[in-house]
Task: structure prediction
Amino acid sequence: MKPKIAIVGAGWAGLAAAVELAPLARVSLFEAGREPGGRARRVRAEPLTLDNGQHILLGAYAETLRLMRQVGVDPDRALLRLPLSWLQPDGIRMRCPRVPAPWHLLLGLIGAEGLSWSDKGRLMRALTRLALGRWRISADVTVLEWMKAHAQSDELLRAFWRPLVLSALNTPIEQASMRILAAVLRDSLGARRAASDMLLPRRDLSALFPDPACAWLARQGAALHFGRRVQSVRANDGAGVVLDGEVFDAAIVACAPYHAAPLLDDKNLTLAVKSMQFWPIYTVYLCFHSAPGLPGVMSGLKQGTAHWLFDRDALCGEPGLVAAVVSAPDVDALGSHHELVEGVLDDLRALVPLLPEVLWTRVLVDKRATFAARTGLSRPGIRLGVQSLYLAGDWVDPEYPATLEGAVRSGVAAARALKQDLKLKKRQDR
Result:
């Protein structure tokens, strides 16, 4: 008989683990919320339905793309693939051609506007230094410290590195780990050309993976329990684990760190989570009477309230809708929601002086959107030191910041460790 496996949390990590295990085990998926997807899903902002933030995927997200295909989602239809580009009408304007790496980056930098030739040279030398070092940082330092040591100018820090690090790590460069940034750059800029492509969702986040994954899991016979908050998970005296009084052969806890720690009552895990910090993300939605006509589906300003602006009319076919993202803000300096909306409107007027009439606005705030990808970050492993009990989540992945790929990779890794420990493949082959 197939083993009985519990997965706690139906975010992208828990769903990835469930998809990996469902063909080999009797999977029960428990989620405290009413819908799957964790922090990357659609939410109801009455009377509207909006994405909880604006996510960007990369061509390097191999595990995410693989599992999307496995549950029946065609990434070529669900995602808009764009070559690596950077559009700041008041700053850097760069578009890398579709030629093999690393020539795409070299030609993109040569043709970039808004950068002096001396800054182009500094940026290329810094990237070359990382590539020659195999994208490894021996002694972890902050991004700012590393960049200063490698002669990156104040203009490069302001117009390129700061917005890049905020987008990739949601952590200010004064705190962000250069080692974690190097891992992201390794898998994108340091790999084949297509790995650096930007993949922008054409569908809402729930339709991108969570909903299709749940439908696929149901067809596999998995039991899906939504609105069910698990109270405790502990090792069984005999074998396996006990989840709220029910015995399972193994369990994967794939929820946020501040939920996982009290659930598992593990002293080392509790200490690790207490040492973690978190940063918010603000997403401002503005709906106009007609398409505002932004210069690109994704654009930004070197100096603005929002870090990036997304034309969801052109991207997703949502009439007149724009999403503005503010990553890791100084909340005290941000002001009220009204002031935030007015600041984003000023950003948009800098790009499109004659904006259409505004029909409505919404501000979505995720106060603990991501863990701070800072230096010296101590992360727990997938195995807890308790037999048949595993962890998953973007905060568990050993290299990546809080990204969809980090979450998916951790879920896959936890599932594979479980399969190895329980010898699930051998059981299936008999």
The two ends are 11 Å apart (CA to CA). The mean pLDDT is 94. The chain has 17 helices and 20 strands.
